[in-house]
Design brief:
- By secondary structure, this protein is of the alpha/beta class.
- The chain folds into two domains: 81 residues, Orthogonal Bundle (Arc Repressor Mutant, subunit A), CATH 1.10.10.10; 200 residues, D-Maltodextrin-Binding Protein, domain 2, CATH 3.40.190.290.
- The chain is 42% helix and 24% strand.
- It is built from ten helices and ten strands.
- A six-stranded mixed β-sheet has the order 4-3-5-10-6-9. A two-stranded antiparallel sheet has the order 1-2. Strands 7-8 form a two-stranded parallel sheet.
- Helix 6 crosses helix 10.
- It is globular, with a radius of gyration of 22 Å.
- Keywords: DNA-binding, Transcription, Transcription regulation.
- Belongs to the LysR transcriptional regulatory family.
- This is LysR substrate-binding domain-containing protein.
- It comes from Nonomuraea guangzhouensis.
Length: 289
C-alpha cells in the first residue's frame, strides 16, 4: 500500500524540482525527505528517482505515479471535506492568504460577514503574492487564498488546486493616454517574480518596446504617490485607483485583472471553504467596480 504522505512528497518534488526545496517548504531536513522517498520507491517496487550526484530527477515511473498521486490526494481532500460537513457548522481556524489590494478592500467586509454568519470560525489572514499561493496551499500553510490573473500573464495555479472566479477589474495607466505613449518614460513596476511585474513588462512588450524600469514597488498606494511625484508611469488596477492623489490622471485600458478564490483540489466542499467563498461573493456586491 502506498503511503499518501509519501505521495505528497513526490508531488512536491515534481513541483519544486529539488529535495532541498521540498525540505525547506515542509520544514523537514533533506535527509528525512530522501529517506521518505526511498521508502516510497520500496513500496512501489520500481525506481521513481534518478540520482546523478546531488541531482535528483523523476523517472518515467515517477512521473506516472505523480499523476495518480494527484487523484489520490484529491479524493482524500474530498473525504476530509465530507466528514467536516457532517459535523456542526463551520468552526475553528481558517487560514486565508491574500494579495495586498484584496486584503485591504475585499477582506474587511468579507471577514465581517463571516463573523456574522459563522461566529465559530476564526479566520487568520496572511499577505501573500499570488505567485507563491500554489506552494502555500499544497503545503497546508493556507486553506483558501485570493489570487489574481492579468492579461499577458498565465494563471499561477496548478493542477493540484481549484479556483472560483470572483470578479474582474479594468487596468489604468497613469499620466499617459496609451502604453505606447510611455515608450520613453521611466516606469514603476512590481518587484521581479511578481505577477504585477510580469504584467507590466509584457504589456510594454506588446506595445513594441522594453520599459525603462526605474522603481520596483509592490504597494499600489506607493506606486501612485511616486507617479504623482513625477517618478514614472505605472499600470494599476481599478481597486487601487479609486482615489488617485493630486497630480495623477488615469486612463482606462483594454486590459484587466481577475480575482479568484483558490483552494486545494477536492477541498472546495469543506464547510469553512464554502463559507469563506460565500462571504467573498457577498463582499464583492459592495465593491465600486
Amino acid at each position: 500500500m502506498l503511503d499518501p504522505r509519501k505521495l505528497r512528497l513526490l508531488r512536491e518534488l515534481a513541483q519544486r524540482g529539488t529535495i532541498a526545496a521540498v525540505a525547506e517548504a515542509l520544514s523537514f531536513t533533506p535527509s528525512a525527505i530522501s529517506q521518505q522517498l526511498s521508502a516510497l520507491e520500496r513500496e512501489a517496487g520500481v525506481a521513481l528517482l534518478r540520482r546523478t550526484g546531488r541531482t535528483v530527477t523523476l523517472t518515467p515511473a515517477g512521473h506516472l505515479l505523480v499523476e495518480h498521486a494527484q487523484d489520490v490526494l484529491e479524493q482524500l481532500e474530498k473525504a476530509s471535506a465530507a466528514l467536516a460537513a457532517v459535523r456542526s457548522g463551520p468552526s475553528g481556524p481558517l487560514r486565508v492568504g491574500a494579495f495586498p489590494t484584496a486584503a485591504r478592500v475585499l477582506l474587511p467586509p468579507a471577514l465581517a460577514e463571516l463573523s456574522r454568519a459563522h461566529p465559530g470560525l476564526r479566520p487568520m489572514v496572511s499577505e501573500i503574492d499570488p505567485a507563491d499561493v500554489s506552494a502555500a496551499l499544497r503545503a497546508g500553510e493556507v486553506d483558501v487564498a485570493l489570487v489574481h490573473e492579468y492579461d499577458f500573464v498565465p494563471p499561477v495555479t496548478d493542477a493540484s488546486l481549484e479556483t472560483e472566479a470572483l470578479f474582474g477589474e479594468q487596468m489604468y495607466l497613469t499620466n499617459r493616454a496609451t502604453i505606447a505613449d510611455a515608450r520613453d518614460d521611466a516606469w514603476i513596476v512590481g518587484k521581479p517574480g511578481t505577477l504585477c511585474h510580469a504584467m507590466a513588462i509584457r504589456a510594454c512588450q506588446a506595445a513594441g518596446f522594453e520599459p525603462r524600469v526605474r522603481h520596483q514597488i509592490d504597494d499600489f498606494d506607493t506606486v501612485l504617490a511616486f507617479a504623482a511625484a513625477g517618478q514614472g508611469v505605472a499600470l494599476v488596477p481599478r481597486l487601487a485607483a479609486l482615489t488617485p492623489p493630486h497630480g495623477v490622471t488615469l486612463t482606462g485600458l483594454p486590459l484587466s485583472r481577475r480575482t479568484l478564490a483558490a483552494f486545494r483540489r477536492g477541498y472546495g466542499g469543506h464547510p469553512a471553504i464554502k463559507a469563506a467563498v460565500a462571504a467573498f461573493h457577498t463582499a464583492i456586491t459592495h465593491l465600486p467596480l
